[in-house]
Amino acid sequence: MSAESVSIVLVGTTHSGNIGATARAMANMGLSRLRLVCPRAEIDDEARARASGADALLDSASVHDSLAEAVSDAVFVLGTSARRRESPWRVMGPNEAAGALREASGPEGRSVAVVFGRESSGLSNRELDVCDGLVSIPVAESFPSINLAAAVALIAYEVRTVWATGEETARPNENQFAATVSEREYFFSHLEQVLEQVDFSRATGREKLMRKIRHLYMKAQPNSEELAILRGILTNIESKLRK
Amino acid sequence: MSAESVSIVLVGTTHSGNIGATARAMANMGLSRLRLVCPRAEIDDEARARASGADALLDSASVHDSLAEAVSDAVFVLGTSARRRESPWRVMGPNEAAGALREASGPEGRSVAVVFGRESSGLSNRELDVCDGLVSIPVAESFPSINLAAAVALIAYEVRTVWATGEETARPNENQFAATVSEREYFFSHLEQVLEQVDFSRATGREKLMRKIRHLYMKAQPNSEELAILRGILTNIESKLRK
């Protein structure tokens, strides 16, 4: 089950750099189906530069005369929109949208699509009509104008995240060689001796001080190697003090 | 409680367009603190064009000579990195990272930061040393190279999402007086001196050793009081060694 069933559709894009940056953002997240509806920019040098190597995606992009044609094979289509007020469409956040896309695509990998409108004016109502629902990226009211390719990057990221979860991310245990209780207790008593030798524990009170240090140690959860370093430091300090 | 406590830090950026697009992506998500470390591009026409109106953010961006200086006021710093394999740093996904930033910032809105490296080569190990953990954006293995501003957009989006949800996780912040980057960097350099004095750092190699110790420190996340204890210990050891 892969996120490849998700197409990204750009409608009426005017900046070629945005087409290139979209290709790059898609490739980053494992998406490969780019569809262009009535593009108003060429796939030029600027697009290639911003694609930064995702040329295959640019070269395989399909071009269409209408949104309906571009998504004709899809079983579920989401349009992106800034509007929230009394929308007749179901409006989702990016994460919820990714979940809905995944569910609609199903284990069979049915085609689904996310549609991004013009840089200046977004999608028309006629185009929104083609959509099953809307995705709205939560932006600051003071500065809502999000770059087209940045919007694609956010949605593609959520798609990848949602598709990836559930499979088990068996990451190795980072604290693999945790120190045993006896190792650490030995360290604490050694440390206490050294602190005594350098007249440190007197001021605070030994017990209270050691409790604070233990707390710090527990937060760090040193593994055996790290504990060996700490013990080595103590040993060296002691031998220097003896001289 | 607002996400404004989150700074975006760009290190060694070479394309002015990326600085502009970063400003726009930040403004979209309600972030306003942009910090530039040794930028290799000017804020030129291309930057202004890509900022698409987010000029205030470009104009108020601060410029720094080093990452440590840029984030000196921060209590928690995440670096972005593609690397995943056996990293000594704690590696988070964007959503988890946003949660960690929010928690570290706390209801007081303490300064926290996310750092983005050079377009070509990312962050150096020395720069990663300053970070408490890493954020890794999950990308397709076949095409991992993500645009800088797109990466900022994804992180800013997750920050906004996490900050917007949950209203308040008003559990008392256990790390109430988190140490700032400048406090801990001072501690590391002091510790390094003391380890030198007790002949400890020679065997392992100073840089490798200090990196392991930094990792342990980042796991512990000492607060100001705990850091004061650690500093006091160093001072006492030093004064004893002098005798």
**What's the shape of chain A?**
elongated
In round numbers, the mean pLDDT of chain A is 87
Output the strand order for the largest sheet of chain A: 3-2-1-6-4-7-5
Percent in helix of chain A: 40-55%
Succession of helices and strands of chain A:
EHEHHEHEEHEHEHHHHH
Coarse structural class of chain A: alpha/beta
**In terms of quaternary structure, what is this?**
homodimer
Number of strands of chain A: 7
What's the total helix number of chain A?
Answer: 11
Spans where pLDDT lies below 50 across 5 or more residues of chain A: 166-174
Outline the structure in words.
The structure is a homodimer of 243-residue chains. By secondary structure, chain A is of the alpha/beta class. Helix content of chain A is 49%, strand content 12%. Chain A has a 7-stranded parallel β-sheet. In chain A, helix 1 packs parallel to helix 2 and helix 5 crosses helix 7. The longest helix of chain A has 19 residues. The radius of gyration of chain A is 29 Å and the shape is elongated. Chains A and B meet through helix 1, helix 7, helix 10 and helix 11 of A and helix 1, helix 7, helix 10 and helix 11 of B.
